UniProtKB/TrEMBL annotation:
Cofactor: Mg(2+)
Organism: Oceanisphaera arctica
Gene assigned in the entry: thiM
Gene3D superfamilies per record: 3.40.1190.20
The UniProt record lists the keyword Metal-binding: yes
GO molecular function: ATP binding; hydroxyethylthiazole kinase activity; magnesium ion binding
Source organism, top-level taxon: Bacteria
Pfam families: HK (PF02110)
UniProt-annotated binding residues for substrate: M45, G198
The protein, known as: Hydroxyethylthiazole kinase
GO biological process: thiamine biosynthetic process; thiamine diphosphate biosynthetic process
């Protein structure tokens, strides 16, 4: 993976407009659907057991976000993952608030265990909590916001990569993408981004779009959102306009700007 493969993956998303099936939380359904559309992908939000099997057959990827979990949805999420496996489709897990309750931690682990082609995208606290004692790290989870720096979650991410045979994206001031054979660090984004809810959820949704076109590490999504986010923040007075400007920046992002702005540390 290098800058050129990220640019090529973005073109592939815009050409193929992959359908991304989302079971996501009530807070971010609109943001994430708009983020996918603005970048050039096609979102669908679905929850009914009666349609998930049919829809998974023609979707390019499944995004499971546990942000507003309840007992009915857990069963749907497990069913959707089963369908994704059956159709050979990648699954992105966003373990929102993992560590803040045992329900969230246990459900995240069940989903990760079940998915055959998995990418996990969470903030540092969520990644540490998901790995649990396996990685010898203590997460500071109080809610859905990260209280740990990305670097503190690297050992946990490495553990998850080995344990679930997946790729892990730790988001934060620095985004760290951990795969079985490499680690990338991205220094893009903006300090205003965590003042808008669902930026991480948008990253997970975009990760689904890239996975659908064969970029199954999460790197391209983190690069695109990081660059679009910093462009949007430079044009915003605060979080209100950032939320809207992000959609414009995703829509307008071209290869040249992406290559110019990307600050990636390669292995
Ligand atoms: N301090 C920061 N500086 C630069 N970029 C940041 C910063 N904090 C977050 N970001 C960017 O914001 C995006 C979302 O990451 P974040 O870690 O805040 O997700 P999250 O905690 O899961 O958010 P949410 O749960 O609200 O969706 C990523 O693209 C990340 O790079
Ligand atoms: C604030 C919040 N609460 C549950 S999900 C969510 C959106 C950000 O993850
Ligand atoms: Mg989150």
């Amino acid at each position: 993976m290098n800058t050129q493969t990220i640019v090529t993956a973005l073109s592939a998303v815009r050409e193929q407009k992959p359908l991304v099936l989302n079971i996501t939380n009530y807070v971010v359904m609109n943001n994430t659907a708009n983020g996918l559309l603005a970048m050039g992908a096609s979102p669908i939000m679905a929850h009914s057991r009666a349609e998930l099997a049919e829809m998974m057959a023609f979707s390019g990827a499944l995004v499971i976000n546990i942000g507003t979990l309840d007992s009915v949805w857990i069963e749907r999420m497990m069913f959707a993952v089963e369908q994704a496996n059956q159709h050979g489709k990648p699954v992105v897990l966003d373990p929102v608030g993992c560590g803040a309750s045992s329900l969230r931690t246990e459900t995240s682990r069940r989903i990760a265990e079940a998915a055959e082609q998995l990418i996990i995208r969470g903030n540092a606290s969520e990644i540490i909590a998901l790995a649990g004692t396996g990685a010898n790290a203590e997460a500071n989870s109080k809610g859905v916001d990260a209280l740990d720096a990305s670097e503190a979650a690297v050992e946990a991410a490495r553990y998850l990569v080995r344990y679930y045979r997946c790729s892990v994206v730790i988001s934060g001031k620095i985004d760290i993408i951990v795969t079985d054979n490499s680690e990338f660090r991205l220094h893009n984004g903006h300090s205003m981004m965590p003042f808008v809810t669902g930026m991480g959820c948008t990253l997970s949704a975009l990760t689904g779009a890239f996975a659908a076109v064969g970029e199954t590490t999460g790197l391209a999504a983190a690069a695109v959102l990081g660059v679009a986010g910093e462009i949007a923040a430079e044009q915003s007075q605060g979080p209100g306009s950032l939320q809207l400007n992000l959609l414009d920046a995703l829509y307008r992002l071209d290869a040249e700007t992406l290559m110019q702005r990307l600050r990636m540390e390669q292995p």
